[in-house]
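Before the break, one more example. Copy the sequence into your notebook; we will annotate it together after we see the structure.
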Amino acid sequence: MSNPDFQDIKNYKPSKNEEFMNPKQLSHFKKKLTIWRNQLVNDAKSTINHIQEDSNKVADIIDRATLEEEFALEFRTRDRERKLINKIDKTLHEIELGNYGYCKTCGAIISLLRLEARPTASECIDCKTIAEKKEI
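Here is what the structure looks like once it is written out:
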């Protein structure tokens, strides 16, 4: 990728020596989330084009059934990605509100390592672990 925004993200690493969620960190995560969101939207558009082009080409009933099964799998994947896009949108809204990077449950800082790995994280690792244990 030669996108300058991508290069900025690739070259900048938020540091715990900086003020937490300073403008540079916020900009970094906002760009990271926006690039991710745009990629998911482009993938969805590509799937729609692929399905429209391929669905008219198959005349054999067995090939048609195979193709429809592939489409069903793609639709499930895109549905998960649609939910992820919604989560990214909510996270971008949290950045705008100034709440990004803080646990929605306890208010603690979410570690930069966690946010780098999962930029949509809304809970610190301790609260997320407790929530997952309750689900079991």
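The longest helix spans residues 61-97. DSSP finds five helices and no strands in the chain. Try to locate both features in your own notes.
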